[in-house]
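As noted in the main text, all predictions were made from sequence alone. Below is one such record, for Class I SAM-dependent methyltransferase.
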Amino acid sequence: MTTADFVTATRTFYDAVAEDYAERFTDEIAGKPLDRAVFAAFADLVGQGEPVADLGCGPGRVTAHLASLGLSVFGLDLSESMLAIARRENPGLRFEQGSMLALDLPDGALAGVVSWYSSIHTPVDELPALFAEFRRVLAPGGHLLLAFQIGDEPRRHENPWGHPVTLDFLRRQPEHMGELLTAAGFAPVSRTVREPHANETTRQAALIVRRP
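Prediction:
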């Protein structure tokens, strides 16, 4: 699969399911105290008022939560349907359409990057390029927060909520992701692994790394 293929597949999937997805996951952050603790730690590391990008922001719930923690954050997503929801629910925040593989940002523009389950559709051989782009837009000393489901086998979602679309959700191992991030020039800060919550079926990981 080429870069264009998986980007198109991801955009098509989320354009189709956006409203159902947003309704289904309304209270995701409120119901997960350990995730909120990770966000709080990340915000403390980045610093009040510092510029942050929430990449793959979907309906903007994480973007809004990061803003509530004092970060100067904007959201970016492939899906215009998701962005329409994000703008509707968060009129005071900025949301842009784009690909996190090719960010329209100058080098070193950000103090923080968040990829909250947004790298899970990126094939493993594309991850080095993705992480290099994250590093490019971070200023020295900037932090990246990366979350994903733990596992070795992908989960394929077919016809969600009756929509005729299919997409693979790729699971990763924290050790491998840490190695890829180190190879991309990041220094490890923290690794959080938690057990499944409510309707989740796998353990979840959140890595925080820093651009030296």
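The mean pLDDT is 95. The helical segments are 3-24, 33-46, 61-68, 80-89, 127-137, 174-183. These features were considered when defining construct boundaries for the mutagenesis experiments described in Section 2.9.
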